[in-house]
Amino acid sequence: MAFLKVQGLTKSFGGLMAIRDVDLELQQGQILGLIGPNGSGKTTLLNLITGFLKPNAGTVHFMGENITGLPRFKVSQRGIARTFQLTKAFLDFTALENVMVGRVYGQQPAKNLAQAAEESLEILDRVDLLDKAHVKARNLTLMQRKRLELARALATKPRLLLLDEFMSGLNPGETEDAMQLIRQIRDSQVTLIVVEHIVKAIVGLSDRVVVLNMGEKIAEGTPVQVCEDPHVIECYLGKAVCLK
Amino acid sequence: MSAKRITVLALVVAVVAVLAALPLFVKKDSTINLACLVLLYVALASSWNILGGYAGQTNLGHAAFFGLGTLVARFTWLGGWPLWAALLAGACVPVIFALIIGAPAFRLKGAYFAIGTLALAQVLYVTVANKWPLITSLPARYLATYRLMPRYYLFLAVAVFTVGVAYFLVKSRLGLGLMAVREEEDAAESLGVSGLRHKLLAFGVSAFLAGLAGGAFAFYHVGYYPQFPFSPAWTFDTMMAVYIGGTGTVVGPIIGAVFYVLVKELLALKVVEAHLIIFGILFILVVLFLPGGLLEAWSKIRSALGSRAKSRKAALPAG
Q1: Which of A157, A200, B95, B312 has its CA 20 to 30 A from that of A168?
Q2: How far is the alpha carbon of A91 from chain B, nearest alpha carbon, in Å?
């Protein structure tokens, strides 16, 4: 049984087909890389899986259960967490309070707020934000906010975590750190879908890669297979990057 | 328990004790009446703040819930129900109303929600005025035994209860979810928080407390037109008190209500109708320059004084 199974998913906005008949299968413990040019439908696909958008057709099964069209907070309660491309921190909350929301409303919730705070501090430590625990989110830098969002998503103790361009805007050194962090998350029994523009990161991280273009899946396979796929090279990557 | 919490607790006990003892050394009815008004506004402001401040949903129809509370409590009480039952009914009916209109109203966001609640309150205002055009006065047998003290203590109890509910709600898991929805609903939902359920909860609690205040008003007032408590002025006075004190805090609405009612009484005596203009300007100034209200002003002053004290210390020669 597939851990996550997407079948024939379709979403249009007016006349624009944002996602057309996409199939996707994901095994537990894997990292799936999702790439594609701007406007190819990556974020839309994440929104469809997490209940932020309702599909026009198609189904999403998670751990054998149909979660198509479920309200987004219920999708979260099933164990699917996400981050946002444009960060959505609770700006007037401290970093600690941000994470506590996930700890209180997520899987195996904390018994009381004191326990939630304690566990949230551990999670902040994991993403290297412990020293910012009592700083308001509005006073964090963009990079810190991204890590805060990751911490908040982890605080719900998800089985599946969807990262939307978590590494965009990072310099090479930071990218290396972020990749390390994502591998650690995978090793803690969390399955991941990673949407990313940085091909090097996707190739380095993913067990499998899916390529979207104009809302359709044009290639799928191991990172090496995908990079050698003529369709992908033609529409998106460019030879030089692939063969490096 | 930390030292700060003990201080706060002692302060709360002291304030409530002074208020409870007030009638012992204040004998003038006009002063007690003013105190009743202050307590009523503390209750109204704190109850509005649960939805408006913590959940971030601007309700321009608070008077409707207050009004429903007065209407139900007044007629059931005068109809022979015991006072406690009338008060409870007056608090529960607004909750039902809030839950019925909440589900569709919360599909509206921001300004549209505000306008929707205002329209609804106006509809009720006009309807009540048409349905019950006559003044409701206490019958002679009630008037003969009318005493101010029980009214005062009822207002005190309602105000303390309302602030207490607000405090414990805010410190709870639900309070955290409520504020998360206010801050960023998408993110809150992505963490498993239902925006609609939390907003409905806040709306229900807010309506219950407003209805309870309405019941106290119905018990207190000798004679008034039934539509009077539905007047939008109740909503706007309440909101003014919350904004002046500081939204989204437990203490803000209390400070705001005390400040607003006392200054308004003073100004109404001195400059009569012009006090409306003064408060209108004050409201605009607060929203523009002091969105955190008097509480924000206080913390700004304190941090300014603190940093000055620090820099003075730093300027002193070492040793």
Answers
A1: A157
A2: 7
Q: With an 8 Å Cβ cutoff, is A224 touching chain B?
A: no
Mean pLDDT confidence for A211-222 = 90
**Chain B: nearest CA to A117, how far in angstroms?**
12
pLDDT band for position A45 (cuts 50, 70, 90): very high
Answer yes or no: CATH 2.60.120 is held by domain B30-291.
no
- ipTM for the predicted complex comes to 0.90
Q: Which of A73, A104, A106 sits opposite B176 (nearest CB)?
A: A104
Q: How many contacts does A have with B, using Cβ atoms within 8 A? A: 77
Q: Do B210 and B48 form a contact (C-beta atoms < 8 A)?
A: yes
| CB nearest B192 (choices: A106, A112, A149) | A106
- Please answer yes or no on whether B179 and A73 come within 8 Å at the CB atom: no
pLDDT of residue B278: 84
To which residue do tokens 């009381």 refer?
A: A112
Inter-chain touch A73–B173, beta carbons under 8 Å:
no
Residue-level pLDDT at B308: 67
3-state secondary structure chain B: CCHHHHHHHHHHHHHHHHHHHHHHHCCCHHHHHHHHHHHHHHHHHHHHHHHHHHCCCCCCCHHHHHHHHHHHHHHHHHCCCCHHHHHHHHHHHHHHHHHHHHHHHCCCCCHHHHHHHHHHHHHHHHHHHHHCCCCEECCHHHHHCCCHHHHHHHHHHHHHHHHHHHHHHHCCHHHHHHHHHHHCHHHHHHCCCCHHHHHHHHHHHHHHHHHHHHHHHHHHCCEECCCHHHCHHHHHHHHHHHHHHCCCCCHHHHHHHHHHHHHHHHHHHHHCCHHHHHHHHHHHHHHHHCCCHHHHHHHHHHHHHHHHHHHHHHHCCCC
Chain B residue closest to A74 (CA)? B192
Of B172, B186, B194, the CB nearest to A88: B186
Interchain contact B86–A (C-beta under 8 A): no
Overall average pLDDT of the B124-147 stretch:
91
**pTM of this structure:** 0.90
Residues of chain A with C-beta less than 8 angstroms from the C-beta of B180:
90, 93, 101
